[in-house]
Amino acid sequence: MTNGTFKLRPELPTISVIGWLKANLFSSWGNSILTLVGAMISVWLVWSVLDWAVLRAVFSGSDGSTCRVAGAGACWPFVAHKFQLFMYGRYPGEEIWRVNLTYMLALAGLVPLMLPGVGGKLWLSIYMLVVFPVIAFFLLTGAEWLGLENVATEMWGGLLVTLVVACVGIAASFPIGIILALARRSELPLIRWLAIGFIEFVRGVPLVTVLFFASVMLPLFLPENVTFDKLLRALIGVALFSAAYLAEVVRGGLQAIPRGQFEAADALGLSYPQKMGLIVLPQALKLVIPGIVNSFIALFKDTSLVLIIGVFDLLGIVQQGISSDAKWFSPQTAATGYVFAAFVFWMFCFGMSRYSVWLERRLDTGHKS
């Protein structure tokens, strides 16, 4: 109390900009030297990128001759000329509206589902998990009874394949990973051993091996008249591979739940599904949000490995565009294409990372970033 009035909260000390710099960046000779060296390196990196990507870059041209001049930077006409190829692969140009419509339908359900203030989460979940996949399947592959031309998955490519593999992999691996985590903690030996065997086997081999097996070896064990689409094989391989890693992330969250939570649920007479679905799993998943998102980001980047089985994702189609079109050959063409692909991958991965941080703060998981 001061002069008969109450202070609701203590006054925070104000620090000037110079004071903050002195306390955090120039508090000692060693910190001052590191700060100056770091600043010089940062300025050099930013200037180098701007010089190559903007100041010396080529922004117009119909072939690679405009990018073959001495001292030229990024060859952006190559990206502009190949942009449709990078986004859709060899999907028929007159049918691209179907891909764009699929994207819009996905955003129409995903955005409100991810925003806490929007109601109707149950119906949005049903739409995204049941209705939308069916609509997307017929839109992308086609259906004669709907008047949509059939487009084989061999025609797909670029960002379309990257998003299809990543989204299907995330949507399928998440529930499978939870089931595997619960199975590994099961009191039934057979179920526990099967889960442990699957997880340890998948985590012991690289994704390239899983994709190679799904594409080349799996058909050898099937009847001659039974075939699987190449993209479907990649989706199955990626989903199962990611599920094994997600299972260990979820298991870590389950082990972090105090034993009293399990005992309290048992004392209330809850069944096993009720105990896990209403009490244990919500707490466990909240604790391992960073690990889950990290697995999703790794899965998104690993989509580039589907090139090993002849499925051209964004990176694969960029490589194909660089090597197959001699008209655009120049010293800067390859670097420009790879920088464009890297920026697209970074944009999606950074977005998932920032959403994870926001979600952690909203759920109050103790995140301090």
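Second entry:
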Amino acid sequence: MLVIQLAEELRQRGHEVVSILPTRLKGWLHDHLADRGFRFETIELAGGSTWSCTRDLLKLLRRLNLDVLHSHEFTMAVFGAAASRAVGVRHVITMHGNQTMVDALRRRIALRVAFRMSHATVAVSEDTRVHLRESLGLPDDAISTIRNGIPRQAGDPEPIRTEFDLSQGTLLVLAVGGLHKRKGHALLIEALGRLQMEGRIPPWKLVIAGAGPEHEPLLSLVEEKGLGGRVFLAGQREDIPALQVAADVFVMPSLWEGLPLAVLEAMLAGTPVIASRTSGIPEAISHNEDGILVRPGSVHELAAALERLLNSRHLRRQLGEAGKARGERDFTIERMAGEYERLYRGGGLD
């Protein structure tokens, strides 16, 4: 989503944007870029040698005659750095916060080389920047931080409330993210199940928007907790803005993250946020000021935060308004794109 939203904002600013996708990403991202009228190219990276992949990207860059190549994450960062250096194109890297990416020595070596060959390397949060710098043994100024930003998007809550049969007085709890263990969806179901069993919260329903390998285990957990009819695994959704506006509480219970767009979307929608105190999330949310932070992996803290927020309309309104003000000040697409523009033109960040 960040790639799509940044591309749209840059196009609005008068730039020509061409997307280069590994063939393994032909699908959701390819279709969304095509639907928005973006020109795109594909390149085969899987199964080839380092030299053949770099060579193929080099040929593509020469044909496209680019001014700047902006690579995201490990694979494109490494191949993009080598190819752009060879053709004299300015290269910018963005790293989004995969904590396991630097576990292997060969990956650490490849990233050190790629960062050194590029005009600028950016992390999406200060936490990600520090993690990369320390893991790779880099000087403090080797990586900059540009925090994610998102566009303001309007959504209609009524179709959502109808779809999930949300009667008056029933609160909607929303989580957005791929169904992977690190996203902590099982912890959220456990916490709500505990509160429901003890009768400590008003009527509620939980919608989890996302797809992934934990779908069946989560369904089993819902059945085990007797929460059928209350918890909905809604799959990949195209109406996240509407879900965010319809929600009474947004929850991001991840074990680790970069700076998740879904948290920023909730903030700009004015929806109060409960999120894990991990990775880049505390850079967007100050505890008890514009959201509630809990210890990652703690069902007890998550349940206590849910009980507190679901039982107080005043607190939901207060935190939602504060979060929206923070989001509009610090996490807009305009701010983020402006900082990237300065790097594209060869400048630095303040």
